[in-house]
Amino acid sequence: DTEVTQTPKHLVMGMTNKKSLKCEQHMGHRAMYWYKQKAKKPPELMFVYSYEKLSINESVPSRFSPECPNSSLLNLHLHALQPEDSALYLCASSHTKGRTGDEKLFFGSGTQLSVL
Amino acid sequence: SQQGEEDPQALSIQEGENATMNCSYKTSINNLQWYRQNSGRGLVHLILIRSNEREKHSGRLRVTLDTSKKSSSLLITASRAADTASYFCATDARDTGGFKTIFGAGTRLFVKA
Question: Which residues contact B21 (CB under 8 A, 6 or more apart)?
Answer without folding.
Answer: B6, B7, B8, B11, B73, B74, B87, B107, B109
